[in-house]
Amino acid sequence: MTANVSELAGKTALVTGASSGLGVDFARQLAEAGCNLVITARREDRLIALKQELATSHPGITVDVIVMDLAGRNAAQQLHEEITGWGRDVDVLINNAGYGLFGWFLERSWDDLEAMVRVNTLVPQELTHLFASGMARRGFGRILFVSSMAAYQATPTYAAYAAAKSKILLFGEAMNFELRGTGVSATVLSPGMTRTEFLEVSGQKATLAQRILMMESPDVVRTGLSALMHGKASVVPGWINTALVVSTKFVPRPMVKWIAYAMMRNDEVD
Ligand SMILES: NC(=O)c1ccc[n+]([C@@H]2O[C@H](COP(=O)([O-])OP(=O)(O)OC[C@H]3O[C@@H](n4cnc5c(N)ncnc54)[C@H](OP(=O)(O)O)[C@@H]3O)[C@@H](O)[C@H]2O)c1
């Protein structure tokens, strides 16, 4: 198994959610490694700006932009058709696009919840289904799923988001097993609080615990890409986050959700 991201030079990576936060840093670090990129999200201006930045800093790579709302019913298929239509193979799939919805489950509309669950769980699974068979046929592929520390326990105020991220955590770890021997590996990255646009989008004001635990996006991405290159099934960036995830195994299950709630709770949901 290759161990250095520079070994992806000349390969093509598809990065979803590349218009802000972790996705931008995935694109930057993969470009630095010499990887050609296909970047996608809804905000075209951000994608074009990133393409221009990378074209200047890394003139030897190609960067293609696809503007797409992944909440659309056939979005994954459209993405696959567009890229294969160019005659391009995807060697590295970074399933990063996603977002949370903060607050009580019943106070959110079903349409909003369904779209969030689709983007966080169904789309990464469908993209894996569409792209991994080609990777296996060619004998090489790397697939990363961005889950969350929220995946490790029931999390009131992020009930549907945490459940969606649990699903992708379990799916990604199972893919790591199923793909053994194919030359394709799958890795799940489960970040804790990271400085991106996540809270702005979810509608939550950062709690004290979140401010204390906040990590920087380039560090989280570096951890994820290193785990990806080592073929690890799963990684939680940051030793405090890792310790918190491990500690949930030793706390009686009925208490875990109370601790998660205490860490997420702020004035907006009392
Ligand atoms: N930051 C954290 O604390 C944290 C913690 C744990 C897990 N995560 C996970 O990390 C991943 C990246 O999030 P982030 O923290 O970098 O947040 P972010 O800055 O808000 O970025 C989210 C990205 O996902 C894209 N996206 C959202 N909805 C989309 C849709 N319907 N169609 C296409 N693209 C969509 C956004 O692009 P457009 O809006 O332009 O479409 C954006 O590029 C997510 O899966 C998130 O759940 C984040």
What does this structure look like?
- It is built from ten helices and nine strands.
- The strands form two sheets. It has a seven-stranded parallel β-sheet with strand order 3-2-1-4-5-6-9, sandwiched between helices.
- The relative contact order is 0.14.
- The chain has 270 residues and is α/β, with parallel strands linked by helices.
- The radius of gyration is 18 Å and the shape is globular.
- It has a single domain (5-269), classed as Rossmann fold (3-Layer(aba) Sandwich).
- It binds NADP nicotinamide-adenine-dinucleotide phosphate.
- NADP nicotinamide-adenine-dinucleotide phosphate binds next to helix 1 and helix 6.
For the largest beta-sheet, the strand count, sense and barrel status come to: 7 strands, parallel
Number of helices: 10
Compressed to H and E, one letter per element, the order equals EHEHEHEHEHEEHHEHEHH
| CATH topology (level 3) name | Rossmann fold
Report the count of strand segments.
Answer: 9
Structural class: alpha/beta
| Helix content estimate | 40-55%
